[in-house]
Amino acid sequence: MKSFTSRYMRSYAGVAGLFMLLVVAAVVVLTPLLSPWDPFAIDFGATTLPPSRLHWFGTDNFGRDIFSRVAAGAVIDLRLALVCVFVPMTMGIAVGLVAGFYGGWVDTLLMRITDVVWAFPFYVLVLAIVGVLGPSEGNLYIAFFLVNWVGYARIVRGEVLLISRLEYIEAARLLRFGGPWIMARHILPNAVSPALVYAMSDAVLTVQAVAALSFFGLGVQPPAPEWGLLIVDSIDYMRQAPWMTLFPGLALAFSGVAFALVGEGLAQTLRPEGR
Amino acid sequence: MFQGIVNRILMVIPVIFGVTILSFLLLQVMPGDPAEMAMGTRASPEEIEVIRVQWGLDQPLWQQYALFVRDCLTGSFGTSLFHKLPVSQLILERLPYTLGLTLYSTVIALIIALPFAIVAALSRGRAIDVAIRQVFVLMLALPPFWLSFVFIIFFALNLGLFPTGGVGNGFLENIHRLFLPALVVGLSTAALIQQSLRGTLIETMGADFIDTARAKGLTATQVFRRHILRNSLISTISVIGVRISWVIGGTVVVEKIFSVPGLGSLLIDAILTRDFPVIRGLTVFFALLVVMVNLVTDIAYAMADPRVRLR
Question: What is the ipTM of this complex?
Fold first, then answer.
């Protein structure tokens, strides 16, 4: 574990990404404590003000402070993104592990299901599921859980197939360790690292998709200061107040970049040959 | 070779079967009665009953599925509630825009990615290689729907270089009108292409037939252009074919923002108007399109490169 930390710290990209995530966390925690502006407080005397020392990101068409709103939105977007990555990741790892380890008809069945879900473009299936279930935050979770696990299942299964052929697994089998024990103890720790790297690029796409779906009215519902919703509200003011569009998107891009860099760091740490 | 192609085609059948089942289940898991949900609260019970019969909701589940498969096989994919037209007709009207946008964005992506892939491959492992890789990874982190608005604000509203959206008549006008949406989609595809092309370039440069080409006296430029680049491009195009679901998925979001009347706009409009037959028909169609493109790519690639064996 110590060697993992020190190796990770040697990756510039990884350190930068971690630092950016810490910045986001600090803003999320500190803004409600330090900022004089309530993200929901309307002030018709201060509408569409450009960024200034008083309002760092300017104000919107209701005179609300955009910095406070973006910070409040971070809680919503990042919570959604983390849950929508973590839960499907766990599901996908479990499926890939079982399919790769047991092989045979279990593998065939699980991989056929995976192939079917994989055949749909990601956005199409998520949109269709949200479309029939009805737009809401809860249904957004369901849609991501149903769709997002396939990538992990495919990756982990491939790794398991490679690892299962190695001698130490053969040795464990000869020692008559049970299947679940071998999977959990010997295969999982080695098969999981590519899934972790993939999880970071998945987080980039998920945080974008959450905002995009909310943007189309199919995810988080107003008046939550979700980033996609902030961008929707800004469209009619694109000409007079471009900062209304700019800053929520920059927040999205910033967290996306942070996840991407952490992924780079993980890739460099877990794949030391540096391909 | 022939056996491989047949096997590959046979492999598609269970996937297509699964795709229809999954799309069918979409409407089954819906909370409440689909007919009622679709018609809204203002519809009379008689009107809802008409839709129930029309959609076969009064019949047992397997017959409903059979009805759905029949719709897919006859090519109608169901009837739109909102447009009162076969879904297939709506798809045919809009497909050219989606395919055009996909193709256009891929060309833009290739133009962006090609030089950087070459530079990265030639300076493999050095700082410039790492820097290029990271810039492309970061480009992926820019949310496309937001990037669309940034481009609209900057290129369309401030500079007036492009329209804010919509499509026109004729090839040249659409090349101009669709430039911004194609650029947004192309930027994310470019990252995919750059990484894959760099990898294959490096691999090809180490191949034996390159040594042969050098040994017979070709100049470095000739070897690079005729042998390395051409071979690497074939495999990169096949990568795009395999990841077509990703590229098409990217157009879905962007189309709506730029008012391009393609399949993505159709899907989002169908969701907003609760036009369930269109949602389902489109979902099936998208998946079938992806499966078919993947199949054709695999077979074409195996034919172009005899070293590849079909699974």
Answer: 0.84
